Amino acid sequence: MTYILIVIVALVLLGIVAALSQRHSDDDQVVLADNCATCNGGNDQCEQECMMEAATQPVEYYDDEELDVFAGRSSDAYDDDEAEQFREVLMTLLPSDVKGWNRSLILRGINVPNQVKDELVLLLSES
């Protein structure tokens, strides 16, 4: 009889501890940003959450459908003429669209050519 009482008390205590820890973890939940445009690159978690959210949405194109032929190609596998196609699109973008274009390329499995990466990074840092 004593063993049964000890088991019951232990189960009750375990239940209380589990309930308290669950309530504590609810307080620590991260609230997603209402708008991914507020991610400024300084918060990796915000960027990651926005990328995951973007992955569930249709891919946004920036009048660059011709770049889809490069999906899966390594960044160092482009010749200068192919890299120029990326540069032309990049230079026609509004500064506010550069980050979205980069996300679009990532979601489409397109790696930016090494020849264009420095320009892209510079424009990303300015936006």
Explain what this protein looks like in three dimensions:
The chain is an all-alpha fold. Helix content is 58%, strand content 0%. It has helices at residues 2-27, 44-55, 80-92, 98-107, 114-126. Helix 3 runs parallel beside helix 5 (114-126). The longest helix is centred in the first third of the chain and has 26 residues, at 2-27.
Question: Helix and strand layout, with pairings?
Answer:
Layout lengths: L1 H26 L16 H12 L24 H13 L5 H10 L6 H13 L1
Helix pairs in contact: 3-5
Roughly what fraction of the amino acids lie in strands? Answer: under 5%
Biggest β-sheet description: none
Number of H- or I-type helical stretches? 5
* Average pLDDT figure: 80
Q: Which residues sit in consecutive blocks of at least 5 with pLDDT less than 50?
A: 24-34
**C-alpha Rg, in Å?**
24 Å
The number of distinct β-strands equals 0
User: How far apart are the first and last residues' alpha carbons, in Å?
Assistant: 71 Å
Helix content: 55-70%
Shape assignment: elongated
Order of SSEs = HHHHH
Q: Structural class of the secondary structure composition? A: mainly alpha
